[in-house]
Design goal:
Layout (H helix, E strand, L loop, with lengths): L1 E7 L5 H14 L4 E7 L10 H16 L7 E11 L2 H13 L4 E6 L7 H6 L2 E4 L7 H19 L7
Parallel strand pairs: 1-2, 1-4, 3-4, 3-5
Helix pairs in contact: 1-5, 3-5
Subunit structure: Homodimer.
Keywords: Cytoplasm, Methyltransferase, rRNA processing, S-adenosyl-L-methionine, Transferase
Function: Specifically methylates the pseudouridine at position 1915 (m3Psi1915) in 23S rRNA.
């Protein structure tokens, strides 16, 4: 399985980079995982609603340019579907069973994802109704993907 994590912005925090690298290393026996960063749109701290939409649209175009037609897209969205770790494992197993070996998880920037990205998504996934920094979501996501593979293989993993 080839898993790509498409994310807006550069990851700067060393501790997050180290955690993500550790989980990607742990995932190596199960899947090829890569992270593709696209630059966030420069914008002032306070934006009008129209400016926010313009930023999301520009970032969305960059994100979608990295997605091929045969890729199954899972976008992280607060209003998406809540899945347990076991349900995410089941979904990844289902995709593998039906030959969907290219998966892209999309993490938007601080303003969220464009409507275009959400329309292209095969699954909108919510980790919580809470808002998390998009940099931290990368670490949470790779940990949950790792956990999903461990669940699917019946291998032990801490609870």
């Amino acid at each position: 399985m080839n898993i790509t994590i498409l994310a807006v912005g550069k990851l700067k925090e060393k501790y997050l980079k180290q955690g993500i690298e550790e989980y990607i290393k742990r995932l190596a026996p199960y899947a090829k995982v890569s992270i593709v960063e696209i630059s966030d749109e420069p914008a002032p701290d306070t934006l009008s609603a129209a400016e926010i939409e313009a930023v999301k649209e520009a970032e969305g175009k960059k994100l979608l340019s990295k997605v091929s037609q045969d890729t199954y897209v899972i976008s992280l969205a607060i209003l998406g579907k809540n899945l347990s770790s076991e349900q995410l494992a089941s979904e990844l197993d289902r995709l593998a069973t039906y030959g969907r070996s290219k998966i892209a998880f999309i993490i938007g920037g601080s303003n969220g994802l464009s409507d275009e990205v959400l329309k292209r998504s095969d699954l909108k996934l919510s980790f919580s109704k809470m808002t998390f920094p998009h940099q931290l979501m990368r670490l949470i996501l790779v940990e949950q993907v790792y956990r999903a593979f461990k669940i699917n293989r019946g291998e032990p993993y801490h609870k």
